[in-house]
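Design a sequence for this backbone.
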């Protein structure tokens, strides 16, 4: 520009360049305890329920690190839990120009843990959602870099009090689902199946660089 103080000055296009800017949020230094969710579900042909509790040890996890999920099950029914399925969904909320929202599955793992009727179960199962396992999926939000160097799944967007969502433009969040696959029991003879599900919010970010 020939006149830095003139906002109405017209610039010739041949005298311009473009610069790509990445806006990055890093995880805060102080992290608290993790989320916990529980459910008690009853079934037909059974007068007692299945209790499921799932919890995380902390509220923020870093990209690439294993995420241990503590699972407790109290099966008071005559049914059998055949396996445990854990999934992670990424939700991208675009608030820049519209109210578009996209949800994509970024992880789905099954664990062959069997829980017999009238039995208890307690174990920590670890998962690691990675971009490398989702290369063929379209519509995922990423922490994009030029030529996809060192790219990973997009970090969770942290919205602080008083912050304008439209300034952030795109909001990313994650949700863990823990699902017990329960076989039919009693008079049904195991011919049917149902499930018991809880959901946990997941915050996935990068640590703040020391420098």
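Sequence:
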């Amino acid at each position: 520009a020939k006149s830095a103080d003139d906002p109405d000055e017209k610039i010739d296009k041949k005298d311009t360049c473009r610069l790509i800017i990445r806006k990055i949020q890093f995880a805060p230094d102080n992290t608290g305890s993790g989320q916990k969710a529980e459910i008690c579900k009853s079934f037909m042909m059974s007068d007692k329920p299945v209790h499921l509790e799932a919890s995380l040890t902390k509220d923020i996890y870093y990209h690439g690190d294993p995420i241990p999920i503590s699972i407790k099950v109290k099966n008071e029914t005559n049914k059998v839990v055949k396996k445990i399925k854990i999934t992670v969904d990424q939700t991208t909320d675009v608030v820049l120009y519209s109210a578009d929202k996209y949800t994509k599955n970024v992880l789905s793992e099954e664990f062959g843990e069997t829980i017999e009727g009238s039995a208890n179960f307690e174990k920590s199962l670890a998962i690691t959602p990675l971009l490398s396992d989702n290369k063929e999926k379209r519509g995922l939000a990423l922490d994009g870099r030029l030529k996809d160097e060192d790219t990973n799944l997009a970090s969770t967007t942290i919205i602080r009090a008083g912050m304008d969502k439209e300034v952030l433009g795109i909001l990313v969040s994650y949700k863990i689902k823990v699902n017990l696959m329960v076989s039919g029991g009693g008079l049904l003879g195991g011919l049917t199946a149902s499930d018991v599900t809880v959901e946990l919010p997941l915050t996935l970010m990068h640590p703040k660089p020391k420098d």
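Confidence is low (pLDDT under 50) at residues 185-192.
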